[in-house]
Amino acid sequence: MACITKTRDNVENYMDDYLKKTAYLKTYSNEIHEIPDENLCPKGQFEIVLPPVKRGRAGRPKLSRRKGSNEPLRVQRSNGFRCEKCKEVGHNSMTCKNNPTTAAASTAPYMPQKVPKRNRNELNTLWT
């Protein structure tokens, strides 16, 4: 197209005849009557055309329904945490403030105590 306009040639000289306006007017010059009823359509030996098979989208599927404004966003657990030391619900054994039972105390794992860190001056005096 750029070459044709550069040479200032007529674009219609490079078009096929069926793309021109005269062919369009000639094609639609006759009247096309619609069929008033489907029963008047000619029957043919055609196969039934089925819609394409629906495939799932890629990625995680969305929820089946959207929650209303009055519904909670998350569902809370019906049974909470149970402490292994005192067997009460509502906390775990790391945050237990109750006195452990004697059975639980005897089976408690050994926890080493932290050793305090030495500062740099103490280490220098040890090595000299």
Task: Report the β-strand fraction as a percent range.
Answer: under 5%
Main pleated sheet: none
Order of helices and strands: HHHH
Query: What is the averaged pLDDT score?
Result: 77
**End-to-end separation:** 91 Å
The total of helices stands at 4
Approximate shape: elongated
What is the SS-derived class? mainly alpha
Helical amount: 10-25%
Region (Disordered): 97-128
Main features:
128 residues, mainly alpha, 4 helices, 0% strand
Short summary:
By secondary structure, the protein is an all-alpha fold.
How would you explain this protein's 3D organization?
The protein is mainly α and 128 residues long. The protein has a domain at 2-29. The chain is 20% helix and 0% strand. It is elongated and about 105 Å long.
List strands and helices in order, with pairings.
Elements: H1 2-6, H2 21-27, H3 102-106, H4 120-127
